[in-house]
Write a structure and sequence with these properties.
Layout: H1 2-14, E1 31-33, E2 39-41, H2 42-46, E3 51-57, H3 62-78, E4 85-91, H4 96-106, E5 112-113, H5 120-126, E6 134-139, E7 145-151, E8 156-162, E9 171-174, H6 183-191, H7 202-205, E10 210-212, E11 219-223, E12 233-239, E13 244-251, E14 258-259, E15 266-274, E16 277-285
Parallel strand pairs: 3-4, 4-5
Antiparallel strand pairs: 1-2, 3-6, 6-9, 7-8, 10-11, 11-14, 12-13, 12-15, 15-16
């Protein structure tokens, strides 16, 4: 790790930037297991998302910690894995307990795979990640040519490379989103590739309804003084990996308890549909 940090320092001193993954094609059978025990692969994500953002990190790095908070904010700004881009944090070298501590300490909400139990170290190895943190952007639903931006000494150039995964083609659009001084740097990189799924009205919608008790250990209530719907309210429960756990259930009034005894501990999102609009709140299950 010291060698990696020394390498980064030297690169900054002499003013040279280089992509942090040398890979020119997405490796076969890329999969990871989240802290919530969901197995994710590019193939399984292809049907639901147009793009995937991978953040590679190790838990001991202060630079990784700072960058993770920016990536997590971008994850929230784009819509909590509910729109066209899926965020996944991939650890290298740490186990699930260390990664859970990392996530809890920093208040991170995006899905995370540990380096050991979650296959993160293998994934990082397969992408030939050179240093940490590294954030890459993959076009998981595109078929055609791959455009990889490569930074050289003073100027950038594009390489066009065909990459095929089974019957699909996966494109590495950004080998490394860097430098990152805020979440805006990440959003700017995403916008360059036509990712416009940023939920501009998320902030206004967050306080439309409340979830209580929160944290919950078996049931919760929804409360709102701002929503009205004679037909009742549809809701979904979505886990942190973006998987819909409970789909399109209907309650006639916000006073009715919603039972969740079967849910594993962790972070979830409650999405309510009312008057043809969606509103989302977080729920912690203990």
């Amino acid at each position: 790790m010291k060698r990696i940090l020394l390498f980064i320092a030297l690169m900054n001193i002499i003013g040279i930037t280089q992509a942090q993954t040398t890979l020119r094609m997405v490796p076969d059978s890329t999969f990871a297991i989240t802290l919530q025990q969901d197995t994710l692969s590019l193939d399984s994500l292809r049907a639901q998302y147009d793009f995937v953002v991978f953040e590679f990190f190790f838990a001991e790095s202060e630079l990784c910690k700072e960058t993770s908070t920016y990536v997590n904010q971008a994850f929230k700004d784009v819509g909590y894995n509910e729109n066209q881009v899926f965020f996944l944090s991939i650890n290298v070298g740490n186990d699930s307990i260390e990664c859970q501590h990392y996530q809890d300490t920093l208040g991170l909400e995006m899905p995370m795979a540990s380096g050991i139990q979650g296959n993160g170290s293998v994934v990082a190895d397969s992408f030939n990640i050179q240093s940490y943190p590294t954030i890459i952007l993959i076009g998981a639903n595109a078929i055609g040519e791959e455009i990889i931006s490569i930074d050289t000494i003073g100027e950038g150039e594009d390489m066009i490379i065909d990459t095929t995964y089974g019957e699909y083609t996966y494109n590495i659009y950004e080998q490394d989103i860097w430098p990152i001084d805020s979440s805006e740097d990440i959003l700017e990189a995403l916008n360059k590739h036509g990712i416009t799924g940023v939920n501009e009205d998320i902030a206004q919608k967050e306080n439309i309804f409340q979830v209580y008790p929160n944290p919950s250990n078996g049931f919760f209530y929804l409360k709102s003084d701002k929503l009205e719907s004679p037909q009742g309210f549809e809701y979904q429960i979505i886990d942190i990996s973006g998987k819909i756990i409970i789909e399109d259930k209907t309650i006639n009034a916000f006073e009715s308890p919603i039972h969740i005894e079967g849910l594993k501990t962790g972070m979830y999102f409650i999405r309510v549909r009312a008057n043809n609009s969606y509103y989302t709140q977080k729920l912690l299950v203990e």
